[in-house]
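Objective 1.3, modelling of assemblies. Example input:
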Amino acid sequence: MISKDKLTWMVMCFVVVGAFSWLWEAARDSMAQDRAPVKPREKANPAIDETKKKGFDGVDFSYDVFGAPPGQDPEENARKVMSKDLAEKPKVLERQKKLLNDRYHLDCRTASGVTMTKGKPQPIGPTAHLKDGITWDKLGQMEAEDIKSKKVFPAGFDRLPHVKHEVGGMVFPQIQIKQFPRLDRVDVEFDLPDCFLPEFPPPIFLTTHPELGDVSQGEVVSADNFDRILRGLVTSVQLDGLRLLVTQFPQEEFNATHDRKSLKPSLGVACLDCHVNFHSTGQFHLNPDTRPQRDRMRLDTVSLRGMFNQQIHGSKRSLRSVEDFTEFEQRTAYFNGDQIRAIKKGVNVIDRLLVPHMAQMQNMIDFPPAAKLDPMTGRLNRKKASPQEMQGEDLFFGKARCVACHQPPAYTDHQMHDLQLERFGAHADGPMKSFVLRGIKDSPPYFHDGRLLTLEDAVEFFNIVSELRLNKDEKAALVAFLRAL
Ligand code: HEC
Ligand code: HEC
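Predicted structure (tokens):
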């Protein structure tokens, strides 16, 4: 039996709760009425809907290809994904090999005396294939609209995709995997021939010790040896920064969870696994900034040489400090711009007190020596340079207009520029950082995605894109100048 008192009490409660919820609804309605009504789309742009819908090659793609479907054991699923990856690998590599052969002559041309800093021969081009009936001279004379309508822009000058673009992630060259087997992946392998990569290991030059030359002494700086190699040459803050730069931290493809692309669980990837000896040996991944997956850009690892003198960082990000980029790499780039996966796989959030240690170390790295450049102007020393190099310099600062975006001493203008390749029927990349050209002979392949395999390709590229109408001798001179930087 419910007593009368209790009943009154319950009725009161209902009344009070009811009143409150009525008030709440009313308040919400009035707030909603304050907002402007949602305007329907006046003109739908079907291209936008199409772009979002098509992840990759017309297939609806979400990055989470190896997540377990609901109700399925994730580890079991991961094992299935891994065996599938392994089984499909030969086909994936074959597809990329065909793509590269369709774009480039991949035979390795070199010339005696034309080397990188430590003596590896520089690859000589141009390597990009031309369409039937076209020569470099003909192409150089054509107008943009003509190149576009006749579809003769070289495929090798358009975007270079990742080996397995639908998955992406970090990929390391075989020469490095030989020394560090932990960097091997089950699903992909590095695609470009060794000829078109920087020397391994690259030399290290300290701004504080130019008289010592290469302080790496031919070793790859890693967690095993950094203390032995650099203690006594750098400050303790810098050495601590270096410790963090060679420490492996979890990342999308290399981590200790079942959901990874390395055969064995991995502690992750170190900054200097990609920026080997503060330079690069062609390691690549996809940029975290762009969606859908198909439109993400392959990014060829940039050198960290001479960063002390650069005002913006990243080809798209334009971050204003080395500290910010350092933090961005681990929090964002390591996980493809997906913070949920970062939490799942164990993102290492570097203490903001330690980020400057890492930056201080990175800021001590110099460009390789350039014997022919005048220290006061960053331009050629007339007594040391050859007539061909001098001609190249004149073109660079004159007719070829390279100086508009590449100014000494680092040969950058610290700006982003949109080359608008869509004018020629290629993919639109939007604004990109003017990369530095100091020490450029050490850094093939060229451009953010490594699409240009040689300096000859880079000059042919700008000859078309800037409509320069250079002749054969002028192009050769320009390349000779770039090699002297
Ligand atoms: C895939 C291998 C890879 C790893 C690992 C990696 N980076 Fe990078 N790094 C890149 C690439 C690629 C770029 C160029 C990014 C771009 O063009 O937007 C870059 C750019 C940078 C830059 C900017 C250079 C400039 O001036 O534009 C800095 C600084 C940097 N990385 C630091 C780090 C640090 C610190 C770590 C470790 C937390 C790290 N990187 C780990 C590949 C890597
Ligand atoms: C309008 C500005 C602009 C002009 C003019 C220009 N460049 Fe560049 N340069 C860039 C940008 C932007 C990039 C990066 C493009 C990318 O990665 O997509 C670049 C990249 C390069 C690279 C590759 C650098 C690397 O590290 O991969 C080379 C080499 C180069 N330029 C040489 C030249 C030469 C030679 C000329 C003159 C014939 C020239 N550039 C004219 C803006 C310019």
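Residues 4-34 form the longest helix (31 residues).
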